[in-house]
Amino acid sequence: MRGRQISDKKTKKEATEVPKKGLGAFLGKISGKGQLELEIDRLNSQIVKLELDLQSAKTQLEKKEALARQAVADRQEAEALLNQERTRTRTLAYELETIRAESQDKLKFCGIETLSPQAIEAYLSKLKSFQTPAGGLLTAYMPPGTRLSGVLSEKVLDRVEEETRTLLDRLDSDTGLVLFYDFHRMVCEAIAPPFPITSAAWQLGHSFEVSLLEESLSKDYHMLVLVLHAGESFIGFAPNAQVFDTEELIRSSVKEKHSKGGFSQRRFERLREEDIAHHMDKVLEALDRVLEENKFIDCVILSGDFQLIGEIRKRLPFNLEIIEKPSDIRVEKAGGEDILRTVLSSRRYLL
Hints:
This protein is 54% helix and 17% strand. It is of the alpha+beta class.
């Protein structure tokens, strides 16, 4: 009886535990499902966020691509405009050079004259009297081989008209140039003095600076003067600007130029060249005597035929300063005094 009671209690206990165990499992399943749903919701939210980020990235990418396309278009347009401007610049530069070339051909000196030593003295006296309270008078000393741009400051150079600079650049003087320039163009001219300008200088003021030129003109030079022409040449030595101390006229028989063609012309020219060579031998003999008698020579002034000047240059001592002067001196029509006055003259160029 007792054993049966024990068995019934055991059966009741087991019957009671079974429903409890099933409920726990059921509750556990519900709890797991909730977590899954929460995880699913979280993942769905993450997906939505990623989709939004993706859409935002696509939008930014589209904007960047649009900007890139616009930038490419802008660059292409800029390059096209740049090429147009380059072409236009080259065209304008070519036109400017053409205009300059044409204008240079048309540019001419207003006047050219030779000033004797007495005339240059009077000329400088007039220049000294020219004054202006505005202070716009420019004087520039340019040694041989020097341009105005190598003497003046850039600021002052810009105030000188281009036409004036162009005309000055055309001048090739063995003695250099002195520019007298009024910015109102009441005075605009250059002087090629008889003796070289030794150093560059300039002044901008109320009057022209002529003292340096006057000093050069008043200095006594020991000069050897040669005027060379085929058949008739002159050699003279002057210890000052007043008179020749030694002078010699060399004459030779030289055939005139032949105008006919053919063999006779070639033979005639050969004979003429022989005559000129003989004349130059006589000139060189006289030159050697003058050089031997006059050891102190400051400069040699050459004038006449270009080819004969070249031959004489080869025989002159290297330490002598040589000045070439373009002139039309004909020694058969001029005495020593006239020759000295001519080689000591200055050249005036009205710009």
